[in-house]
Design goal:
This protein is α+β, with helices and mostly antiparallel strands. The longest helix has 30 residues, at 322-351. It contains 15 helices and 14 strands. It has helices spanning 47-52, 57-69, 137-153, 191-199, 203-217, 227-249, 299-314, 322-351, 361-375, 379-389, 396-400, 410-421, 427-435, 445-458, 462-471, and strands at 2-3, 29-31, 41-45, 72-73, 80-82, 86-88, 91-93, 101-108, 114-120, 135-136, 159-171, 175-185, 251-252, 274-275. The protein folds into four domains: 5-87 and 96-188, no CATH class; 192-350, no CATH class; 355-435, no CATH class; 445-492, no CATH class. Helix 14 runs antiparallel to helix 15 (462-471). The structure holds adenosine monophosphate and magnesium ion. The site of magnesium ion has 3 residues, from loops.
C-alpha cells in the first residue's frame, strides 16, 4: 500500500493526526489496514467540514480518491478496528466490532474538540465474521445525506467527510456498486464497547474505558465524588436530549441496538433510518424491524433500555456494596424519563410557538398530535404551516388542507390562539421563531431513494448534490425548491428502507 508522499519539497500531512484510542490496551482494537480497491473515484468531499478539522484541502483534492477509498494511508494514521459487543433487537451478541470500518485516527478540530476519522466499507477486519467488509453505494449516499441533514437541523450527529466509489461490485440481494464512506465522530465509543469488556468479566478494561471516556467527553466528571455514576448520568442526559431532538424532527433511527448508541450523545449508524412523512407514532421503516421495537414513539423507552445495559457494565464501580450500587444505578436511570420529558416538552412548546410554560400545554400538544395522526397530516409541513397561521388566520386553510378531516382542526386552533394571546411576543416574531425550529426541508425518503437510484443506475450524482443543498439550509424558505418540501405522491411513497450492509 502506498503512503501519500510529497511529490516535491516538504508538504504538511493532509491530516494533523493526534491519536489516543490507539494508545489504549491491545484488547481494545485490532490493528488492520484498509484493503485497496480497484478504481477509486471521489464522489464528494465535505470542504467546510475538512476546514473545521484543519485538514489540508489541496492535498485532499489531489489525493482524496486514494485516501478516502483506503488505497493510501495518510501519514500519521494508525488504522484500527474497534472491538465492541451489543444487544441487537434485544439479543446480546458478545462480539461485534468494526467489521467493515477502520478508524484512521483522530484530529483536534479548530474548536479544540477531538474527532475520529473513520472509513466505512474499507475491507475486512478481524471482526468481519461472515461479512465482506464492504458497503454499497446506496447506504453510503443515504448516510451522507441524512447525517449532514441532521447536523443542519441542529441534531447532534456523526458527520460525512467524504464518499468514494470503489470501482468494485458488492454482492447483496443484487450486484451493486461498492463505495466507502468517511465518517467523523466525537468518538465511535458505544454502549456496546462497555458491554464487550463487561461480558468478559474484564472490569479493568471497563474502568480503563470509563476513564478514557471521562477524559475525552466528560472531563468535568474528573472531580466528581462518584465519577462512574456521574458518567452514567451524563450519558443518560445526553441521550435523553438527543432522542427528544429526533422526535422533534420526525426522525426514526431504525436500529437502536446498543452497538448503535454512542457514549458521546451523537446520532450514529444511519442504516434503515428515515424521516416520517405523515405523522404516525407507530411508524417503522426498517425492513428487519418486524415487531416495531424501534418505532418512532418507542425510541425514548428504547433509549432507557439501552442505558440500563450501560448501567449493568458500570454498576460495580458505583459502590463496593452491591445493594447500594444497584440503588444508585436505578436512581440514575430513573432521572432519564424526567430529563427526556423536559427536553421533549420544551421543544414541542417551541414548535407550536410558545416561549412560556403553562399547565395545559402538554395536553394542548398531545391533542394536536392526535389530530395529526387521525388526519394523516404530514409531520414536517404541518408544523411549518402552523408558523404561518401564527401570524395570519388566512393561512389556516393551507394548514387544514394537510388534514384528511380539515374541519376537526378548528376547535384546536381557537384554543391555541387564546393561549398565544398570553405570550408576550408579536405575531411576526413568533412566526419567525417557529420557522427557526420547524424545518421546511428534511431529506424526504422518496427524494433520498431517487438520488440513490440515479447514482446507481446512471452514475448521476446531481440529485444527491441537489438534496444535500436543500437540506443544508432546512429552516429557510426557498420557493424555487418548493418541490423538495412536498410529501411524496402515493406512487413515490417509500414504505421500507433496508439495512445498510
Ligand atoms: P450495523 O448493522 O451496520 O450497525 O452493523 C452491525 C455489525 O455488523 C457491526 O459489527 C458491523 O461491523 C457488522 N457488519 C455490517 N455489515 C458488514 C459487512 N458488510 N462486512 C462485515 N461486517 C459487517
Ligand atoms: Mg452499527
Amino acid at each position: 500500500m502506498n503512503d501519500v508522499s510529497p511529490q516535491s519539497g516538504p508538504k504538511k500531512a493532509p491530516f494533523p493526526f493526534d491519536n489516543s484510542y490507539a494508545r489504549l490496551p491491545a484488547n481494545f482494537s485490532a490493528r488492520v489496514e484498509p484493503t485497496p480497491v480497484a478504481e477509486p473515484w471521489l464522489i464528494k468531499l465535505n470542504r467546510p467540514l475538512a476546514e473545521e478539522l484543519r485538514l489540508d484541502i489541496a492535498a485532499l483534492e489531489r489525493d482524496g480518491a486514494a485516501i478516502f477509498s483506503g488505497n493510501a494511508v495518510p501519514p500519521g494514521a494508525e488504522p484500527l478496528a474497534m472491538a465492541y459487543a451489543g444487544h441487537q433487537f434485544g439479543t446480546f451478541v458478545p462480539q461485534l466490532g468494526d467489521g467493515r470500518a477502520i478508524l484512521l485516527g483522530e484530529v483536534v478540530d479548530r474548536s479544540g474538540k477531538r474527532r475520529d476519522i473513520q472509513l466505512k466499507g474499507s475491507g475486512q477486519t478481524p471482526y468481519s465474521r461472515r461479512g465482506d467488509g464492504r458497503a454499497a453505494l446506496g447506504p453510503v449516499l443515504r448516510e451522507y445525506i441524512i447525517s449532514e441533514a441532521m447536523h443542519a437541523l441542529g441534531v447532534p450527529t456523526t458527520r460525512a467527510l467524504a464518499a468514494t466509489v470503489t470501482g468494485q461490485a458488492v454482492y447483496r440481494e443484487q450486484i451493486l456498486p461498492g463505495a466507502v464512506f468517511t465518517r467523523v465522530a466525537a468518538s465511535h465509543i458505544r454502549v456496546g464497547t462497555f458491554q464487550y469488556f463487561a461480558a468478559r468479566g474484564d472490569m479493568d478494561s471497563v474502568k480503563a474505558l470509563a476513564d478514557y471516556v471521562i477524559d475525552r467527553h466528560y472531563p468535568e466528571l474528573k472531580t466528581n465524588d462518584n465519577p462512574y455514576l456521574g458518567l452514567l448520568k451524563a450519558v443518560s442526559a445526553r441521550q435523553a436530549a438527543l432522542i427528544a431532538r429526533w422526535l422533534h424532527v420526525g426522525f426514526i433511527h431504525g436500529v437502536m441496538n446498543t452497538d448503535n448508541m454512542t457514549i458521546s450523545g451523537e446520532t450514529i449508524d444511519f442504516g434503515p433510518c428515515a424521516f416520517m412523512d405523515a405523522y404516525d407514532p407507530k411508524k417503522v421503516f426498517s425492513s428487519i424491524d418486524q415487531f416495531g421495537r424501534y418505532a418512532y414513539a418507542n425510541q425514548p423507552a428504547i433509549g432507557q433500555w439501552n442505558l440500563a445495559r450501560l448501567a449493568e457494565t458500570l454498576v460495580t464501580l458505583f459502590d463496593p456494596t452491591a445493594d447500594i450500587a444497584v440503588n444508585l444505578a436505578n436512581d440514575a436511570l430513573g432521572e432519564y424519563g424526567t430529563i427526556f420529558q423536559t427536553h421533549w416538552l420544551d421543544g414541542m412548546r417551541r414548535k407550536i410557538g410558545l416561549s412560556t410554560a403553562e399547565d395545559g400545554d402538554l395536553e394542548r400538544i398531545q391533542s394536536f398530535l392526535t389530530l395529526m395522526h387521525k388526519g394523516n397530516s404530514d409531520f414536517t409541513l404541518t408544523f411549518r404551516r402552523l408558523a404561518a397561521s401564527a401570524e395570519d388566520t388566512q393561512a389556516d386553510g393551507q394548514l387544514a388542507a394537510l388534514f384528511a378531516n380539515p374541519e376537526a382542526l378548528s376547535p384546536w386552533l381557537a384554543d391555541w390562539r387564546r393561549r398565544l394571546e398570553r405570550e408576550a411576543s408579536a405575531p411576526a416574531e413568533r412566526a419567525k421563531a417557529m420557522r427557526d425550529v420547524n424545518p421546511a426541508f428534511i431529506p424526504r425518503n422518496h427524494r433520498v431513494e431517487q438520488a440513490i437510484d440515479a447514482a446507481i443506475r446512471d452514475a448521476d450524482f446531481s440529485l444527491f448534490e441537489a438534496l444535500l443543498d436543500v437540506t443544508s439550509k432546512p429552516y429557510e424558505d426557498r420557493p424555487e425548491q418548493a418541490r423538495y418540501a412536498e410529501p411524496p405522491s402515493p406512487e413515490e411513497e417509500v414504505q421500507q428502507t433496508f439495512c445498510g450492509t
